[in-house]
User: What shape does this take?
Amino acid sequence: MKKGIHPEYYQAKVVCACGNTWTVGSTKKEIQLDLCSACHPFFTGTQKIVDTAGRVEKFRRKYGIKDKTAEAMKKK
Assistant: This one.
């Protein structure tokens, strides 16, 4: 390996939005994630909608679709 051309290599701390953390090797010291295998719908089997700029609510209002999870929370 040539000297002086390779980036520094760190033991990076990965932090997910759900609170899950682990360490990996990376050129960055810390990595922030929105979804990981502990909270991703494919691995957990739960429905989670990642909404940006209210697009899901706009779609539901446009077509008159009621949110089943919101209704379930009201019943509790």
Remarks:
- Helices lie at 41-44, 55-63, 68-75.
- Residues 10-75 form a domain with the Rhinovirus 14, subunit 4 fold (CATH 4.10.80.400).
